Amino acid sequence: MKLHQIIEANEQDGKSILLEAMHPYFKSLRTYYKDYYGCEPTLMITSVSNAAQYGKIVPCEEYFEALNEYTTDEDEQDVINFNSKLIKYFIR
Questions:
Q1: 66 Cβ neighbours under 8 A, 6+ residues apart
Q2: pLDDT the model gives residue 14
Q3: Is the CB of residue 51 less than 8 Å from the CB of residue 16?
Q4: Rounded to whole angstroms, how far apart are CA atoms 62 and 48?
């Protein structure tokens, strides 16, 4: 996936992106979304399995709103909260 495809996919409601596809672009995604949102972007991990992880980039100020829009299941919200971080912590 290319950077513009990741940005387009992230803008779609209910769609998550494979973290492996985002990994090479974390610095660029952080820069783009930090300017776009006006705050630090958060990588909300929406799905975790042995084979893959999926996520969505949301503004840190609206994280809980995005979480409530994504799911209302409290157990699922706990798993998402546990795995989600600010994008800057994924950059090496």
A1: 44, 56, 58, 59
A2: 85
A3: no
A4: 22
Segment 16-57, tens digit of pLDDT: 999 999 999 999 999 999 999 999 999 999 999 999 999 999
Three-class SS state of 26: helix
Residue 54 amino acid letter: Y
Compute the radius of gyration of the chain from its Cα atoms: 12
**Reported pTM:** 0.90
The pair of structure tokens assigned to 37 is: 């949102």
- Given a cut of 90, is residue 92 above it in pLDDT? no
Rounded CA gap, 8 and 71, in Å? Answer: 21
Question: E strands of the chain, at which residues?
Answer: 17-18, 41-48, 53-59, 85-86
Q: How many domains does the chain have?
A: 1
Domain hosting residue 54, numbered range: 3-89
